[in-house]
Amino acid sequence: MDKIIFATSNQGKMDEIRMIMEGFGVQILSMKEAGIYANIDECGTTFEENAIIKAETVMKLTNCVTLADDSGLEIDYLNKEPGVYSARYLGEDTPYAIKNKSLIDRLNGVEGDDRSARFVCSIAAAFPDGETVTTRGTIEGVIGYEEKGTHGFGYDPILYVPEYGMTTGEMLPEDKNKISHRGIALRKMREILQKKM
Length: 197
Prior knowledge:
Blueprint: E1 3-6, H1 11-20, E2 27-30, H2 47-62, E3 66-75, E4 81-82, H3 96-106, E5 116-126, E6 132-143, E7 159-161, E8 166-167, H4 173-179, H5 181-196
Parallel strand pairs: 1-2, 1-3
Antiparallel strand pairs: 3-4, 3-5, 5-6, 6-7, 7-8
């Protein structure tokens, strides 16, 4: 295993992945860095299904070990929306400031624990021998009343984590990666990959 392809073109995600996988000893390339341009239809109904679709599609194109994640925000009061549609909520090209405001507005009048939410991340690894495995991580919190913080990306400024007294957007990247949904799922996956090396 001399390289791993991570089936994403999201630079913010790649920065997090590289930080969490630091010292792993294998080059991790984004699809763009590996010269892969594939239009992948994320038609799954769960985070796991979408991660598997992405990982297996790119692995078949490259014959390389491929990782993919599918992650998103689940808000209990909104029947776990935006869920697997987190990136596509209100349209993929809609700025997150607008998406975040929309979700806060939809919770107008909802208080306390009824604002419960979590980030979920499922990571799939597709291997050239045909095996595919998944891991999952979550971070629990509540939806804040306004955006706070400039770190991270996406919905980070609105998920408030009571235990830390701040949103994930206010956490320094190295602190967030220790407790984040992606950090948890990636560390579990790192253990699986180490056994395969």
